[in-house]
């Protein structure tokens, strides 16, 4: 069987977009990509990414329903076209109540690309139900991302990532006093879209960091506006959470208020005894850096070359003779480059049974000479 040229090109575009999300090369190749050759078993009415992009916007248009026919947990939750609802083709007959009551409304089905038949199968089923304005985006989600469009994730997926302590940054694009302070997703950073350019320091320095933007639901465009600005700044892993805070509050209850968020951040322990999670560490550095002591246990020459702002240096080889010099009054977080020496420092403090609340950063730390740093899980 001859290889599918369109599928191969879509895979190439996706790979290029991951490496160079804003590159002109990716856009040019995507623009020149040929339309997929129709197959006998495909649905007859098809559209391209440009057509879908006119409807996959916030606020969500009322005259269209975009439908993701892929499985929920393995595909839709992790990434889908903004404003799309999820009706897996295998559950289509059980979820028809999610379809609009108006049989004349535009329906756009998509799935995992030209080799995926789920969207076509669902389109035929919708036609049998009496819907008269049905289209299929045959190239689907891989093509959508390859062409540089923003992806979206579900609220349950965001909750899962937060519960895992994943190294992500969640950003609330709503006005702070009128919305964020009255309730927000736990751990979210307040970065109102209207003040985006003035508050760039609230964004992580690592441009590869996972960023999730949300606002006030499908009627709110602030999150998508801010997400687009982040992409233009060079962030390469940006997604929106279109249903935003209203669905979060409905599923998991109201989030913390401004007063609650101002309280001292708690230290969340990692998988290794005595470790602190990357997410917890970064949250404390961002929101309350004065609540911990940072001790860099690398050699002095490495400390002088680059370190984390506010840290003191006690090399691991000198730590046993310098235990009296450890700062007191606040929890200590030891760090190094890989978590090995910082773990040894934590073990030493515990072995000596010192009256110190200590933790270590079990992560790979990459230091930049400009004072920035990036954290990666071991």
Topology:
Layout: H1 5-19, H2 24-32, H3 49-53, E1 64-68, H4 72-76, E2 85-86, E3 106-110, H5 118-128, E4 134-137, H6 140-146, E5 151-152, H7 155-163, E6 168-172, E7 189-190, E8 210-214, H8 222-232, E9 238-240, H9 244-252, H10 258-261, E10 275-276, H11 278-287, E11 293-296, H12 300-305, E12 312-313, H13 316-319, E13 332-335, H14 340-351, E14 358-361, E15 363-367, E16 373-377
Parallel strand pairs: 1-2, 1-3, 3-4, 5-9, 6-7, 6-8, 8-9, 10-14, 11-12, 11-13, 13-14
Antiparallel strand pairs: 15-16
Helix pairs in contact: 1-2, 1-6
Q: What can you tell me about this protein's structure?
A:
The chain starts with a helix and ends with a strand. The protein has 14 helices and 16 strands. 31% of the residues lie in helices and 16% in strands. The protein has a 5-stranded parallel beta sheet, sandwiched between helices. 39% of the residues are buried. It has helices at 5-19, 24-32, 49-53, 72-76, 118-128, 140-146, 155-163, 222-232, 244-252, 258-261, 278-287, 300-305, 316-319, 340-351; strands at residues 64-68, 85-86, 106-110, 134-137, 151-152, 168-172, 189-190, 210-214, 238-240, 275-276, 293-296, 312-313, 332-335, 358-361, 363-367, 373-377. The protein has 378 residues and is α/β, with parallel strands linked by helices.
How much of the sequence lies in strands comes to: 15-25%
Q: Give the uncertain stretches in residue-range form.
A: 12-32
Terminal CA distance: 42 Å
Q: Tell me the number of strands.
A: 16
**DSSP summary: helix tally:** 14
Return the string of H and E elements: HHHEHEEHEHEHEEEHEHHEHEHEHEHEEE
C-alpha geometry:
elongated
* Alpha-carbon Rg, integer: 24 Å
How helix-rich are the residues, as a percent range?
25-40%
The description of the largest β-sheet is:
5 strands, parallel
Structural class: alpha/beta
How would you classify the quaternary structure? single chain
Mean pLDDT: 88
| Widest sheet: strand ordering | 5-9-8-6-7
């Amino acid at each position: 069987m001859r290889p599918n040229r369109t599928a191969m090109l879509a895979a190439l575009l996706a790979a290029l977009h991951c490496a160079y999300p804003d590159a002109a090369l990716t856009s040019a190749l995507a623009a020149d990509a040929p339309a997929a050759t129709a197959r006998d078993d495909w649905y007859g009415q098809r559209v391209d990414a440009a057509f879908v992009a006119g409807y996959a916007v916030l606020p969500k248009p009322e005259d269209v329903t975009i439908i993701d026919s892929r499985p929920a947990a393995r595909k839709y939750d992790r990434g889908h076209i903004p404003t799309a609802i999820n009706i897996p083709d295998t559950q289509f007959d059980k979820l028809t109540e999610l379809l609009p009551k108006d049989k004349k409304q535009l329906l756009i089905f998509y799935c995992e690309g030209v080799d995926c038949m789920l969207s076509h199968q669902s389109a035929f089923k919708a036609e049998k139900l009496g819907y008269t304005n049905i289209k299929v985006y045959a190239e689907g989600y891989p093509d959508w991302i390859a062409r540089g469009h923003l992806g979206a994730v579900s609220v349950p997926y965001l909750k899962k990532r937060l519960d895992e302590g994943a190294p992500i940054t969640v950003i609330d694009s709503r006005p702070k006093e009128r919305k964020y302070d009255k309730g927000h997703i736990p751990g979210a950073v307040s970065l109102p879209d209207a003040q985006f350019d003035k508050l760039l320091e609230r964004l992580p320095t690592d441009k590869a960091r996972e960023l999730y933007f949300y606002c006030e639901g499908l009627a709110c465009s602030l999150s998508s506006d801010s997400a687009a600005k982040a992409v233009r700044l060079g962030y390469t892993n940006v997604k929106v959470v279109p249903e935003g805070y209203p669905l979060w509050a409905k599923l998991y209850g109201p989030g913390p208020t401004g007063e609650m968020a101002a309280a001292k951040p708690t230290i969340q322990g990692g998988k290794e005894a005595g470790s602190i999670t990357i997410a917890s560490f970064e949250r404390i550095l961002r929101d309350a850096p004065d609540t911990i002591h940072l001790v860099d246990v690398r050699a002095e020459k490495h400390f002088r070359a680059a370190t984390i702002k506010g840290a003191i240096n006690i090399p691991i080889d000198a730590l046993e003779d310098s235990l009296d010099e450890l700062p007191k009054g606040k929890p200590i977080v030891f760090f190094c480059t890989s978590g090995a020496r910082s773990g040894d420092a934590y073990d030493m403090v515990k072995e000596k049974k010192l009256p110190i609340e200590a933790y270590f950063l079990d992560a790979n730390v990459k230091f930049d000479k400009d004072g920035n740093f990036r954290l990666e899980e071991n």
